[in-house]
Amino acid sequence: MAILGWVVFWMMIVTSVVGISYRIGKDAGIQAEKDRHNQVFFSNNEKFQYEQRMRLK
Questions:
Q1: Rounded to an integer, what distance in angstroms lies between the CA atom of residue 6 and that of residue 47?
Q2: What pLDDT score was predicted for residue 3?
Q3: How far apart are CA 57 and CA 47, in angstroms?
Q4: Nearest to 29, CA basis, from 21, 40, 19
Q5: Share of the chain above pLDDT 90, in %
Q6: What is the 3-state secondary structure (H, E, C) of the chain?
Q7: Where exactly are the structural domains of the chain?
Q8: Model-level pTM greater than 0.85?
Q9: How far is it, in rounded angstroms, from Cα 51 to Cα 28?
Q10: d(Cα 24, Cα 52) in Å, to the nearest integer?
């Protein structure tokens, strides 16, 4: 019985570590995707503004 208790105890710890690691990685991936999207949007926005300035001259 004691062995079963230790196995369950360690499986809970391992599951918690894996779950927390997955959550941290998922959040980091979402943030990286947001940063990349914002970078693409602003670079396109600058290009659009430049083209508009050149068109108005």
A1: 61
A2: 93
A3: 16
A4: 21
A5: 28
A6: CHHHHHHHHHHHHHHHHHHHHHHHHHHHHHHHHHHHHHHHHHHHHHHHHHHHHHHHC
A7: 29-57
A8: no
A9: 35
A10: 42
